[in-house]
Amino acid sequence: MGKLVAVLSGKGGTGKTSLCAGIASALAQSGERVLCIDCDIGLRNLDISLGLTDYCALTFADVYSGSYPLNKATQHPEFSNLFFLTAPANCSAADIDGEKFSAFLEEAKKQFQFVLLDAPAGIEAGFQLCARQADQIILVTSADPASVRDAARAGELLEKMGKTQVRVIVNRVNEKLYRAVRVTIDDVMDRAGLPLIGIVEDDPDVTLSAAFETPLLCYNKRSAAAKACKRIAKRIQGFPEPIPYK
User: Does pLDDT of 162 surpass 80?
Assistant: First the structure.
């Protein structure tokens, strides 16, 4: 049975989708069989970060409704172990049949070692939909007060849902800026009230790779963000990978 990982954020603009794509690519590159699902219904952008904008992808609704089998998910041209389903465009999260979606995810866990859900930002219906069956939840935040406050609120809701495997990624870390405003990673962790699974430096290659519609690990595998995604992927796999930060 595979592992279902939901990638969430309390607010938009934290870089959640780029990190979901980078971590999924890193897991697939390491040999894991991975299914990456865009669950941001109506605002789907995961295909850009995965470099799949030129590919026709099924939606997860096409699969859970029985119209197509799961083995018709789009296979990534660069990472042969990585498969992709996009989000339906003409409905809302409230329209998704929860029971069918849950059954679909259970079947996906039988066929893939890791299933990653890129959830919509915020704490509305899409948040609940993705978090409900997740074995592990990754909350992405930056250091600005609004992001950290929203991450803390999301963490509280997940605790009420009975979720214990919740970890935080602090994204777009800029040491010079942190020193100027006297903020540390420990401060962010304390305010969010969540344990850390990774730190990702502020890296222009993330923006550039998306602009060129190329996966980050293909655009520049030596970039700071790419290396961070690989380290986070190892931690998700259960390896004791250290978290380098000052």
Answer: yes
Domain total in the chain: 1
Q: Which residues contact 191 (CB under 8 A, 6 or more apart)?
A: 148, 149, 152
Here the CATH number for the domain that contains residue 131 is: 3.40.50.300
DSSP class of residue 51 equals T
Separation between Cα atoms, residue 146 and residue 12, nearest integer Å: 10
CA 162/CA 149 separation, integer angstroms = 20
Alpha-carbon distance of 221 to 232, in angstroms, equals: 14
Whether 64 shows a pLDDT value over 80: the answer reads yes
What is the DSSP code string of 109-123? HHH-SEEEEEPPSSS
Tell me which residue range forms the domain holding 93.
3-237
Residue 180 counted as domain residue? yes
| Run of H or E residues at 6 | strand 3-8
**DSSP states of 217-246 as a string?**
HHH-TTSHHHHHHHHHHHHHHT--------
At 174 the pLDDT is 84
Residue 173 carries which side chain, given as an amino acid letter? V
